[in-house]
Predict the 3D structure of the following.
Amino acid sequence: MGIGIDIGGSFTDVVEFKNGEFRHLNTFKTEDVLKDPSLVEFEGAVYGVAAWIRGGRIVKAPNLRGNLNFLAGKKIENDANCFAAYSKWITKKKNIFAVTLGTGVGSGVVVEGKLYRGRGLAAELGHVYVGGDVTCTCGGKGHLECHFSGWRIKQIFGREATKEEIKAMKGFDVLCLEIAKAVMILDPEVVTIGGRLGRIFNEEDFTKIYEYLPKEFDVDVKIIGDDLAVAKGAALISEGLV
Ligand SMILES: [Zn+2]
C-alpha cells in the first residue's frame, strides 16, 4: 500500500494506492496542515511539494509560502515529478515530458519508465531563461514563468483571464517553444500537461508546439485533468512503481 500527499498552495490531498487502485482519503486546507502536521502523518508516505529538492532536502520553494519544517526527514518529491509519475500510469508510455501549469510552471521527466531527477533539480522548465527583465518568484530574471504562469497572468490581467486571452498571450507562444526544445532533447512519446491552469486547455490548443519541431519528432500531447494527479503520482512513487 502506498500513500501520496500533495501539499499544494491552498489544499493538501491524501491518496492511497492499494491493489492497483487509488482511493482519495482526505483533503485539508494547507494552512491547517501547517498548523497541525499530524493531519498528514502517514507511515511511508511520499509528500509532493512545489519545491526544488536536492539530497532529500528542499533547497528552494519559489511559489510556496509557509513553514515546511515538518517535512524534515520525510520522503519528499517535487510535485511535477509526481505528476510525471502519474502521467506514466495514465499513458502507459516509458518516455514522458510532463508539464504542470499552475501558480508556477513545473516539469518532470520519465526516461525508460523511471523518473529522471539529475542531481535533484532536473527539468525546472519554469525557471529557464528566455529573456526580458521581469523578476521571477525564484529571484531570477526573464524566466519562463515571467512570461507564462498563473502568477504572471494574475500580474498582467489583475483578474482571472479566459482561455482565449491566455492563448493569445505572447507568453503562451514562449511556453510552446520551450516545451518543443525539451522535446528535442528528450524525444519522448508524449508530453503531458496538467495543473490547475493546464486543465483548462485541450490537446488542440498546443498544436503550436509542432510548429517548432521537425516532423520526425511526432510527440503526442495529452492533457491530464485529474485534480489528484500529484497525490496519486506521489503514491506510485511511495510504492516504487516509477
Ligand atoms: Zn525563476
Q: What stands out?
A: Residues 92-223 form a domain with the Nucleotidyltransferase; domain 5 fold (CATH 3.30.420.40). Residues 53 and 132 are 27 Å apart (CA to CA).
